[in-house]
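Protein data:
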Amino acid sequence: MVTILRDITAMDGQGLLRRTRGGASVEPSALFESSVTVRLESQAAAEQAIARAVLRYVEPGQAIMLDDSATGINLARLLRDTGPATVISSYLPIIRELKGAPGIRLIGLGGIYHEAGDAFIGGMTVDAIRGLSVDLTVLSTSATTAGTCYHQTQDTVSFKRAMMDVAAERILYVDHTKFERRALHALAPLTDFDLVIVDENTPKSVLKDLHDRQITVEVAKAE
């Protein structure tokens, strides 16, 4: 029991799971986001389809800012073959994916390293973002409720708000599971985005609600 508790505590510290009363869980909550490893393995097909849909809106030579999301990794893999482009991110998996890619000018954003998210975040990161101007920001969200997207921490909101503020165009990608979740801190109404891309498993009732709120939505089809 002591060994199990020590291991759970260590994995909680790394963001691989969260300790709960009498156990542990890898499921996200209003205060906890799943680890990078868990997010990469869940909803993989949906996220790949969404990434392909986003790629159609990327023009050669654009400066594109990507956040710390599993869908962003899939988009980065597609960008490797479609340059030229300038790609800006604080997310190490994206930086690793694009390192040395022909035609890709890669800009890494510094700050305080967050092990659970494998990304740099915090005030220094926000300051670096606000010193830029980009053609396109592509963001994910942890949860979507009543036409607004939410995240578990205020640091994440500050980081993504800055990404939105410096972009000429904003795209949000949301797989269907995000409409079933809740998170604590509001980022922005979905109407603040030029386009919201969802996967084909998104319920018709959700799509109707988005259209009723005059949100521009595209459904990404899996191959």
The first strand starts at residue 18 and ends at 20. Confidence is low (pLDDT under 50) at residues 27-32.
